[in-house]
Amino acid sequence: MTNPKNSIADKKTIPSIYPTKTKLQVTVIFFVILALYLFSMKKTTEDMVNGLDGALGNMFRVLAKFFPPNFEILKAIWNPMLETIQMAIIATTIAAIITIPLAILSARNVTTFKPLYYITRIFLNLLRTIPDVVLAVVFVGLFGIGIFPGILALIIFSLGILAKLISETIESVDMNPLEAMRASGANTLQMIWYALVPQIAPQFTSLVLYVFEINIRASVILGLVGAGGIGLTLNQQINFYNYPNAMTIIIVIFITVIIIEYISTKLREALL
Amino acid sequence: MIEFKDVNLVYPNGTQGLKNINVKINDGEFVVIVGLSGAGKSTFIRSINRLVTPTSGSLLVDNEDILKFRGKDLRKLRTKTGMIFQNYNLVKRSNVLKNVLAGRLGHTGTLRSIFNLYKKEDVSLAYESLKRVHIDEKIYNRADELSGGQQQRVSIARVLTQQPKYILADEPVASLDPPTSHQVMNYLRKINKEDKITTLVNLHFIDMAMEYADRIIGMRAGEVVFDGPVSEVTEKTFEEIYGRAIREDDLRGGAEQA
Amino acid sequence: MANLTLPPKPKNSLYKKTKTIIILILVAALYVWTFLSIDIDWARAMERAANNFHRVIPRLFDPDWSAMGDVSDKMFETVLIAFAGSVMAAILSIPLAFLAAKNMMGIFSVIGKWILSAIRAFPDIILAVLFVVAVGPTAFAGVLAIAIGSCGMLGKMFSEIIEQIDMDIVQAMQANGANRIQILFTAVFPQIIPEFLSYAIYRFEVDIRASSILGIVGAGGIGTMISFASSNRNWNEMGMILLAIIIVVSVIDFASAKIRSKIV
Q1: What span, in angstroms and rounded, lies between the C-alpha atoms of A92 and A157?
Q2: Which of B123, B130, B140 sits opposite C6 (nearest CB)?
Q3: Which is deepest, A68, A112, A272, B230, by most CB within 10 Å?
Q4: Per residue in A49-79, is it b (16+ CB within 10 Å) or e — as a string?
């Protein structure tokens, strides 16, 4: 800076590390994201009575209401927790069965009839855009409060995810053995059973377990709208402002999720 | 007996795979088809079990025109023609025995095969086949635990278990090293002589073709440009088939090691 | 039959068989327990369904267009919640990811990994419940729930990316005499930024779905309307809400997939 002549000369001879265009693009994108972020923050905090600072300052004081958790209700929440797990088991099992034809239909390498493939794909994509809670709300409206609407919601919700993941697995299989079986006179069913199933069975099981984990979490949410299980109990306690009880339920959910994920991860590791 | 009569094959994209093929393969022959890659060797061999379908002419296998076959007839034809592939085409996650038994699928009912209820004779046959290619000690290993040469031997055992009348081998040694290549070719040759199974092998190695074949068919651009017993073949014949001088990489070598 | 030579039985057959049988029994027991103790009043459920069907299903497919204004407002809020939450999560998860990356922290990475899996074990909605109590029933509670909830998954993905980087370049820089911060900026960041961005954008897709339901516990966005529509049994409005969600989620999924394929 002490020698302005020199620095101008530098600018002419030394190329910048990144091309000007890239630099400009990155800067523009950065500021657009920043502006959007500030706008979102302003919009989402404008309803707050005491403003952002007041709320954040208040946060820990309010959160302290949840402590100490009331462990005396453990006995009472044991049953709804088991109910949640059962909902997830039933829903995952049924989804795993229904998903097989859907996954085959939406795998490009097996379903060579294009219109069928596209229709299944679009159907599954639409299915995946519907939030699980909306499904639960609709089914609760239809069947009344209870676990049955919850199970239905979970089945449909997990079907979208599972069918997509499994169809991707099918698309990545080695097609050579199928050719060999065809060359030896096997029929289509035998080809699928001997060359396709052994290749996808481990991934299939692993993905089903993964979706089971997702379903455990989702079934907690579903309870909040009346679809049975631990979520229903949690919702009641929150509505009664009974925060220590709610905290116990949250801790039980947390531990259950961790245990199930641990078992599921171990099983999946053993499979693959 | 396999007979090609004026067979043509044009692929949907317009490529001519086969051009006016007139060839007769007699029972028990060991025929090697040579040519550069893209010359139509693979199309030629795959026409015989209809993995590809010629667009005109007639192709007789045991005096039946197979080009009209569909469904059940087609599967019956395929049980009669065993095939060996360049990439072995085994189910990698299944064990060796299950892979070999897959050769019986065409002979086995759907329900039986789905519940793994193979006949005792079939299991025994599979085991015998594995013994013949000396890989029986790996019977319960998973296919992906074996080396390339071992996998190709398993796929030979699979074809043996199929008890075919014809064996079609599409570049069976292209993925193998010289000693294993000779081992695999020796097995094919031995099976041809002992079981009187007509064998057609695609190769692009000149020295191997000369060593193992009874008869050589040369192909270029979808046409048969040479057809005759090995005794009539000279280096000049190959230069004509390949349309260029013979190079080092047209030879597999390593014959003395086998 | 006598002249048939059957293959020898597999050696570990007994061990394998017992293992398979035990697993089968356990699985069977799990199912028996589940189906025996599950409590579904089929008769009542079916009766209600028969009564309600015509009141619910046809109306869902006949969206209430007059609610479009409110629905778009709330849907826009949902997108803002997801956006603010994702940005916060992306920033928060960077230090967490470095903490959980083995090649950066050595054995201390276990601590980072534990923090991340603890966060992941909390369903988003539970976090929303906590934050609604803490900061009041506003959209900002949703932002916080998304921010914290997402950084569990995002931190894990980021740390896996960091663990896959080419450490040779880091060593080359060390050999140059660069200090830790310099190494971070010249050897580590250039290798991870595209994947980071790609995952952050993907997470935004997931967060849109998540933020659309947070409203049922009072954390703002379209979920608030889901909650009202369901308690008022206003199925026409629910149809409109569902339509809005499907459109917005599809558009964002599509745009995000396009952007991500450009980045990586």
Answers
A1: 10
A2: B123
A3: B230
A4: eeeeeebeeebeebbeebeebbeebeeebee
Q: Closest Cα of chain A to B233: distance in Å? A: 32
**CA–CA separation, B97 vs B112, rounded Å?**
16
Model confidence, pTM: 0.79
Per-residue pLDDT band at B258 (split at 50, 70, 90) = very low
Distance between start and end Cα atoms, chain C: 63
A141 and A198 in a common domain: yes
Task: Please give the span between the terminal C-alpha atoms of chain B, in angstroms, as a whole number.
Answer: 32
- Write out the E strands in chain A: none
Region B166-189 average pLDDT: 91
Q: pLDDT tens digits, residue range C18-27?
A: 888 888 898 8
Q: C7 to chain B: nearest residue by CA?
A: B127
Mean pLDDT of A26-43: 85
Going by C-alpha positions, the residue among C16, C176, C145 that lies closest to residue C81 is: C145
Best of A184, A189, A194 to mutate (most B CBs within 10 Å, chain B):
A184
Domains of chain C (ranges plus CATH)?
67-263 (1.10.3720.10)
Residue B154 has pLDDT above 90, yes or no: yes
b/e map C98-119, b = 16+ CB within 10 Å? bbbbeebbeeebeebbebbbeb
Domain boundary residue among A24, A40, A65?
A65
Structural domain boundaries, residue A23:
4-65
Q: What is the CA radius of gyration of chain C?
A: 26
Number of structural domains in chain B: 1
Q: Which residues of A touch C238 (CB under 8 A)?
A: 134, 137-138
Number of domains in chain A: 2
Does any CB of chain A come closer than 8 Å to the CB of residue B148?
no
Question: For residues B240 and B228, what is the distance between their CA atoms, to the nearest angstrom?
Answer: 14
Query: Is B97's Cβ below 8 Å from some Cβ in C?
Result: yes
Percent of chain A with pLDDT over 90: 8
- Return the residue matching tokens 């208040």: A58
Q: How far apart are CA B133 and CA B152, in angstroms?
A: 10
Measure CB to CB from residue B124 to each of C5, C8, C10 and give the nearest one. Answer: C5
CA gap B141, B97 in Å, rounded: 8
Question: What distances in angstroms separate CA A156 from CA A30, A94, A136, A144, B175, one per listed residue?
Answer: 39, 10, 10, 18, 47
Q: Order across the sheet with B16-25: list the strands.
A: B16-25, B2-10, B56-61, B64-65
Chain A neighbours, 3+ Cβ pairs < 8 A: B, C
Helix ranges (DSSP H) in B96-205? 96-101, 110-114, 120-132, 148-161, 178-195
- Provide the 10 A C-beta neighbour count for residue A10: 10
C1 → closest Cβ in B120, B127, B139 = B120
CATH code, B210: 3.40.50.300
